[in-house]
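Hi F.,

I've been meaning to write this up properly since the lab meeting, where we talked about keeping a consistent format for the predictions we share between groups. The idea is simple: the sequence comes first, exactly as it goes in, then the structure tokens exactly as they come out, then a line or two of notes. No screenshots and no reformatting. I'm using this chain as the first example so we have something concrete to point to.
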Amino acid sequence: MAEALQQAGHSTLVLGVNSESGKPEGPPKPQAEALNVPLRVPRRLWRFKQWLVPGALARALADLPPPQMAFVAVSPFWIIAAKRAWPEVPVYFLYPCLLANCLPFGWPQRRAPNLWARVHFQAICRLERRAFQLADATFVPTDAAFEELRAYSPRLAGRLKRVSYGVRRVQVAQKERARTRQANGVTSDEFLIVASGTCDRNKGFELAIRALVSTPRHLHLAIIGDGPERDNLARLARELGLAKRVHLPGVQRSVTPWYAA
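Output, unedited:
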């Protein structure tokens, strides 16, 4: 996102969260490209974290100078926080997925497994609806996403924009491709599928591993990322006899070598 804005001639500052310390890193330096803001949520209230994060982020953003043009985010937490901190700044929501619709797929029989899961889910639903209300515009990449969001929140009609991401051709670095494949036991004539994300039940990576059983033996699956289900995914691959065809390298500094592979 930042790269695209920079190519269009705009300077950008990418914000992240520092949950390890309550001390801010200070105002952004000139020409800075990234800054972590503190997330001041009391540890004793961690079970209610989803409800408290927008306010905590808003207090951190209030210590920073407002953007000169606009604030862009893919998370409802940041949308709400930005509007609270800088009411006059245009805020744009880049809509990746509707959590209210996809989170239940990680639950047994689509039901919250306990009270705290339900509390978490209620917070997500409320925060998403609030973010859609506050955002000056919400951008979606596909017709399906447009229709899903319009059904979820009919009041969005005038502020919902359909913008295709498009496809940009990428030059594959052949040396990088060969090096990544060799390091993971994938030969040049084998087919590699790459998925990336948090290894939790919501992602459904176990379905991809199970589906691999019915595919030709020259097909491999790499799942980039870490999370609570990573060990279970590795165990499932072993139980299905797929240990050599399922690769779980964990968090990577860059996924470019895997995409090249």
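Notes:
The mean pLDDT is 82.
Strands lie at 14-18, 34-38, 71-73, 91-94, 137-140, 160-162, 191-196, 219-224, 246-250.

If this format works for you, I'll send the rest the same way.

G.
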